[in-house]
Amino acid sequence: ATLSAVVKEHNTSAFDGKEAALLVDELRNNFNTGRTKSYQWRISQLQNISRMLDEKEKCITEALNQDLSKPELEAFLAEISNTKSSCTLAIKELKNWMAPETVETSVTTFPSSAQIVSEPLGVVLVISAWNFPFLLSVEPVIGAISAGNAVVLKPSEIAPATSALLAKLFSEYLDKTTIRVIEGGVPETTALLDQKWDKIFFTGGARVAGIIMAAAARNLTPVVLELGGKCPALVDSDVNLQVAARRIIAGKWACNNGQACIGVDYVITTKDFSLKLIDALKTELKTFFGETPLESKDLSRIVNSFHFKRLESMLKENGVANKIVHGGQTIEEKLKISPTIVVDVPEASSIMQEEIFGPLLPIVTVEKIEDGFQVIRSKPKPLAAYLFTNNKELQEQFVQSVSAGGISINDTVLHVTVKDLPFGGVGESGIGAYHGKFSYETFSHKKGVLYRSFSGDADLRYPPYTQKKKMV
Ligand code: NAD
């Protein structure tokens, strides 16, 4: 089937509260058979995902291009290859992750042994966002399957081609009795949220996260909230300027054209250094996207006209447009905005108060680089924070005193690819973390188990509680 036929077919089905209840019942019954708990079931589903990635790479890239004009290589590197390496890691490590961990016991329980045993949570819901619509859907599902859960995925309706493709591919490659995709927007998600889940894993914005948490609270359902925020890049003058500029561009415009949760939201640098940094950014932007970036095939478009208008209005507000030092061109019909840099805009403007999530880059100048810490601290805790400097003391100070979901020093975004690092927010940028083993743990309960025999039955713990027993 062509991609447009797949999109059409999958967008026509209605889904309400009654169907949501039936779905969860069915999955819970299937989970209760114990099928998803076996190593064999988990590994076979993971292998199927791996095969799906190999066989359907072209369709996935096409869907991402349709939804976001995502350049083919960016789609491959950021979405397909990252998902593939998570899947490969889970296949390789699954036995180790599942193995009970033996811990020491105390004299109180002597003789005994104790273990931490992982168990699946049950039936879990994954709700994902539109900006990396494939990766953000499949990566948590890999965690849910590894941990032995039944899972429902609700992809974002704002990336309809990828959503439809996920529905089709999951039904083709995975166990339908325990793994399902439900497509849709607010009504369908609301119907799902009315059900009782064993965990809800949500990727999206803070406003909707509040709705998710309130729905989860009704059943005391635990949540993971993978949110966003304003991710700063603090740039010192003691840097390799060209490399720093290239890496800032990679973490802004070459990252879904700024529509990324860990993309650079704004830059802070010193007044003295700012002109050099802006020049370097302009030079490298030309090298990457040419003289007419609106025509570049290497820049994603803005996802839809709502977000296009939102970004345009950020530039129109408070005289921000007068502060443009680079870019500022737009083509509304094509939803294109060129890489745009503004300097020292009023702090009260939306561009400095809200997550930008697009190709606009404000630069804030400060007298001394240390003043940048106060700028970062004045805003809610971001999902990521970046520092560029050779100065080791400054690096240490940044790591110790900047609270953020994660940090890259002298780079942007790449910490997300290190599978032994947890990925998640802190404060307003989220709750919980995943990736690699953290994904497995996020979807598992760690059960403490004490093994005893009938020996060592000391009188001490039993009444009558005599003074003599207290002395022992
Ligand atoms: P969003 O919060 O608008 O939507 C996320 C999901 O919630 C979608 O599946 C959507 O259908 C659903 N939804 C929307 N409104 C709802 C409602 N009223 N009730 C129930 N469900 C609803 O987020 P988005 O626009 O898709 O994504 C952008 C946001 O996500 C940004 O803030 C970004 O920083 C964040 N994000 C975070 C990560 C991360 O890994 N931490 C990754 C990507 C994006």
Automatic annotation (TrEMBL):
InterPro entries for this protein: Ald_DH/histidinol_DH (IPR016161), Ald_DH_C (IPR016163), Ald_DH_CS_CYS (IPR016160), Ald_DH_N (IPR016162), Aldehyde_DH_dom (IPR015590), Aldehyde_DH_NAD(P) (IPR012394)
Pfam family for this entry, one: Aldedh
Keywords for this protein: Oxidoreductase
Domain named Aldehyde dehydrogenase: residues: 16-447
The keyword Oxidoreductase appears for this protein: yes
PROSITE patterns xrefs: ALDEHYDE_DEHYDR_CYS
Superkingdom of origin organism: Eukaryota
Family: Belongs to the aldehyde dehydrogenase family.
UniProt protein name: Aldehyde dehydrogenase
